[in-house]
């Protein structure tokens, strides 16, 4: 049973929907049907019962899972972070894992190779390269197990920060090329194999695809793009039984920023800002923005487990959800406020 904050939120929301629907149907029936004792039934009791049944059904549905033993999964971005951890988790569960790495002979890829796990294949795979993606398809096709390719996990990603006037266009293009066009490239390449298994696609998005914040436009644009890509693809793939899910982490960052990387990126960024723009913003304001990035993005010992758990649920749920949100409570509230309340409320509280 999924007892994470996301799982509980989803179950309660389903319960409220069922409860409200039951109460409305009951109210309508009382006006058109005359049954003995019907008038004694309280609408509140119908509403409450509907809530409980909806919650129970949601938890039951999420308990129905498929086995990954003997199935194969392709993951991009396994050099570190979520992809690295997910590859190990899946291999331990008996899945054949094709771990795509940008540098297959260095760093995390080298560590994975040295583990000598028989079901773990390390593949050289830069998602921005047509040639490397095509070569990955050929490798997977040659080594695929009898049960075929069950899932493609688009985990590879780049992060960037900076106000719209600060970030050079070539940096924006690079982040877009990895986060969006890289996912499109991988999906298009592996869809023929997924059709054979009626498998699934899991794409990494972010809470920053549900709301926007200052200083994060370069990254946020790409994650809104992943939302659009995933929603369109989910509709298009229904005819083949391929499910598409999105993972939306909150501020849980996994090696995307370190103190040194933020400082280096900040120094490089300032030097690329046009002089007239520097004068408008001032170095003092710029340093305050960078200090805020250091404060919120370099928290040590942030667990990767909630995000990897969400990946796993998207892969094993018999009825996968369109979205999984491994967010802490504050981020969950921000998403809810931005989605359901007037925009000025979100801006007043969170910006």
Observed structural traits:
351 residues; alpha/beta; Rossmann fold; 2 domains; 7-stranded parallel β-sheet; 13 helices; globular
In CATH terms, the superfamily of the largest domain is NAD(P)-binding Rossmann-like Domain
What is CATH's topology name of the largest domain?
Rossmann fold
* Distance from first to last alpha carbon: 36 Å
Number of domains: 2
Transmembrane segments: 12-29, 41-60
Keywords: Membrane, Oxidoreductase, Transmembrane, Transmembrane helix
Protein name: D-beta-hydroxybutyrate dehydrogenase, mitochondrial
InterPro entries: NAD(P)-bd_dom_sf (IPR036291), Sc_DH/Rdtase_CS (IPR020904), SDR_fam (IPR002347)
How do the strands and helices of this protein lay out in sequence?
Layout: H1 5-32, H2 43-63, E1 72-75, H3 81-92, E2 96-101, H4 107-114, E3 120-124, H5 130-143, E4 149-154, H6 169-197, E5 200-204, H7 217-237, E6 243-247, H8 259-272, H9 275-281, H10 283-297, H11 305-316, E7 323-324, H12 329-340, H13 343-350
Parallel strand pairs: 1-2, 1-4, 2-3, 4-5, 5-6, 6-7
Molecular structure report:
- This protein has 351 residues and is α/β, with parallel strands linked by helices.
- It has 2 domains: 5-63; 72-254 and 302-350, NAD(P)-binding Rossmann-like Domain (Rossmann fold), CATH 3.40.50.
- It has helices at 5-32, 43-63, 81-92, 107-114, 130-143, 169-197, 217-237, 259-272, 275-281, 283-297, 305-316, 329-340, 343-350; strands at 72-75, 96-101, 120-124, 149-154, 200-204, 243-247, 323-324.
- A 7-stranded parallel β-sheet has the order 3-2-1-4-5-6-7, sandwiched between helices.
- Helix 7 (217-237) links the parallel strand 5 and strand 6.
- The chain starts with a helix and ends with a helix.
């Amino acid at each position: 049973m999924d007892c994470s904050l996301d799982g509980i939120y989803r179950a309660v929301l389903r319960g409220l929907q069922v409860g409200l629907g039951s109460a409305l149907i009951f109210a309508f029936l009382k006006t058109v049907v005359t049954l003995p004792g019907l008038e004694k039934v309280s609408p509140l009791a119908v509403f409450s019962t509907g809530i409980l049944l909806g919650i129970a059904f949601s938890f039951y549905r999420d308990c129905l899972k498929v086995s990954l033993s003997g199935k194969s999964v392709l993951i991009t971005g396994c050099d570190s972070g979520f992809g690295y951890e997910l590859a190990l988790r899946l291999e331990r569960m008996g899945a054949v894992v094709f771990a795509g790495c940008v540098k297959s002979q260095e760093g995390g890829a080298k560590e994975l190779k040295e583990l000598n796990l028989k079901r773990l294949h390390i593949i050289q795979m830069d998602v921005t390269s047509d040639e490397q993606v095509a070569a990955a398809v050929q490798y997977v096709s040659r080594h695929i197990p009898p049960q075929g390719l069950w899932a493609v996990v688009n985990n590879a990603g780049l992060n960037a920060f900076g106000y719209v006037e600060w970030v050079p266009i070539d940096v924006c293009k690079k982040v877009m090329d990895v986060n969006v066009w890289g996912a499109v490239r991988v999906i298009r390449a592996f869809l023929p194999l997924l059709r054979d298994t009626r498998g699934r696609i899991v794409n990494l998005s972010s809470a920053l695809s549900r709301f926007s914040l200052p200083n994060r436009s370069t990254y946020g644009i790409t994650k809104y793009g992943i939302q659009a890509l995933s929603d369109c693809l989910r509709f298009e793939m229904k005819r083949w039984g391929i499910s598409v899910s999105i993972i939306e982490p909150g501020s849980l960052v996994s090696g995307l920023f370190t103190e040194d990387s933020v400082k280096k990126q900040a120094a490089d960024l300032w030097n690329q800002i046009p002089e007239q723009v520097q004068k408008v913003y001032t170095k003092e304001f710029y340093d305050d923005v960078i200090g805020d990035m250091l404060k919120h993005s370099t928290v040590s010992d942030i667990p990767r487990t909630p995000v990897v758990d969400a990946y796993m649920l998207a892969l094993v749920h018999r009825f996968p959800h369109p979205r999984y949100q491994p967010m802490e409570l504050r981020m969950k509230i921000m998403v809810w406020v931005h989605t359901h309340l007037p925009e000025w409320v979100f801006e007043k509280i969170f910006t």
